[in-house]
């Protein structure tokens, strides 16, 4: 009988441990979690970065305060180049949103997507190179010092 009670108590531990206790903080978000969706999405972002870098360096696109990539209004594009940039930006921004969801989901905290988004936005801002363009919340562009 004691063994049965002990076995049942042990089986209940993971379920009890998974339930958050009211009044406690949720576990920390790991931005570098290695779940397959996160790894695949980061790989896709890294591959696209090599094509986007020429637009960043030319000042034709930049990083918005919301963490998304935008065309700069003052940039002069030939139609074909603008279409290429727009397709890359659309894919990049969609992938960034996917990454945020995958990180939140991988951490078991889907409801923490706004927090993950803010953390990733800050990371992307820190990774942005000096001289590349940033857009503030009002839509004004400036170069990163």
Verbal overview:
The structure is a single chain. With 145 residues, the chain is of the alpha+beta class. It has four helices and four strands. The protein has a four-stranded mixed sheet with strand order 2-1-3-4. The longest helix is centred in the middle third of the chain and has 28 residues. The N terminus is likely disordered.
What layout of secondary structure does this protein have?
Layout: H1 2-18, H2 36-57, E1 61-64, E2 69-71, H3 79-106, H4 113-127, E3 133-135, E4 141-143
Parallel strand pairs: 1-3
Antiparallel strand pairs: 1-2, 3-4
Helix pairs in contact: 2-3, 3-4
Key features of this structure:
single chain; 145 residues; 4-stranded mixed β-sheet; disordered N terminus
Mean of residue pLDDT values = 87
Strand line-up across the major sheet: 2-1-3-4
Order of helices and strands: HHEEHHEE
Tell me the radius of gyration: 21 Å
How many E-type strands? 4
Major sheet details: 4 strands, mixed
| Secondary-structure class | alpha+beta
Shape verdict: globular
Residue stretches low in confidence (pLDDT < 50, at least 5 long) are: 1-19
């Amino acid at each position: 009988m004691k063994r049965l009670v002990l076995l049942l108590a042990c089986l209940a531990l993971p379920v009890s441990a998974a339930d958050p206790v009211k009044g406690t903080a949720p576990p920390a978000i790991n931005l570098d979690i290695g779940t397959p969706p996160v790894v695949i999405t980061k790989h896709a972002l890294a591959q696209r970065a090599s094509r986007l870098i020429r637009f960043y360096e030319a000042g034709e696109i930049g990083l918005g305060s919301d963490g998304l990539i935008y065309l700069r209004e003052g940039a002069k594009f030939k139609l074909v180049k603008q279409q290429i940039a727009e397709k890359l930006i659309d894919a990049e921004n969609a992938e960034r949103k996917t990454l945020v969801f995958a990180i939140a989901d991988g951490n078991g905290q889907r409801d923490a997507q706004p927090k993950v988004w803010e953390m990733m936005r800050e990371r992307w801002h820190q990774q942005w190179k000096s001289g590349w363009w940033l857009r503030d919340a009002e839509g004004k562009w400036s170069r990163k010092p």
